[in-house]
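Predicting holo structure, nicotinamide-adenine-dinucleotide bound.
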Amino acid sequence: MHDLDGQVALVTGAATGIGRQAALSFAAAGAHVVLADVAKTAGEEAAHAVEAAGGRAIFVATDVSRDADVAHAVTLAVKSFGGLHCAFNNAGIAPRGAPVAEMSEEDWDRTIGVNLKGVWLCLKHECAHMLAHGGGAIVNTSSIMGVVSGPGLAAYSASKTGVVGLTRAVALDYARAGIRVNAVCPGGIAHTGITDRPDNQKDMEQLMQATPMGRLGEPHDIASAVVWLCSPQAGFITGQALSIDGGFTTW
Ligand SMILES: NC(=O)c1ccc[n+]([C@@H]2O[C@H](COP(=O)([O-])OP(=O)(O)OC[C@H]3O[C@@H](n4cnc5c(N)ncnc54)[C@H](O)[C@@H]3O)[C@@H](O)[C@H]2O)c1
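Done. Tokens:
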């Protein structure tokens, strides 16, 4: 008997990093998992990894900034596994930072489009289904840059702060309808697509030095909290943004 036996979970940004680990962790908790991502080959590989570990999973190519793609992912979850009970809206990008005067409109639009509009589109379609089918639990990925900020991070920080506001607003929209909505705010997490990028190595080293626990987190540090937030154990928690950051935002 597992916490999420018989449930269906949708994970966006599931091809690599935090999302991939979350897909594995949802399956280990008993859920059937729909993995959504723009990266097709890595996404299919991640779905195979979930099945190889004994879970049930499908991959759906999805750009979370496109309404039709998100609607399709939710429909496919329901068609394939008979419902949608949990969602982890995690897809995100972190373009190379720049001071605001040097930042292009294109970078701003793309960052907000994926990180903020993408989460909004997911919430819109997930909540529409959950409202009609008895509720559910949703977790959005923000960041410590949604709690504090840093130089060169105007678009990223605005998008992740927006995710916290969105989480609170939608939690209140549906608090009486059986839908819980929370956010996680990861600190520096090692072994993900974003953090393994060569141009990010210096920033990650600085982030590790500034983290009171003296280390970066691992994808499972986030995934385990996400699965818990979706489980009945967290049944009275909604509208919260949980920092999982080795103490970074406590400093
Ligand atoms: N790694 C960290 O230190 C850290 C810290 C705070 C927050 N985050 C957030 O965690 C989330 C996951 O990032 P990660 O670190 O695991 O990096 P990652 O690059 O491994 O994962 C991000 C995933 O999102 C996918 N993606 C990108 N654009 C997409 C789109 N338009 N539609 C669908 N999928 C898309 C990518 O293909 C990738 O699989 C992101 O939202 C990121 O901002 C990461």
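The chain has one domain: 8-240.
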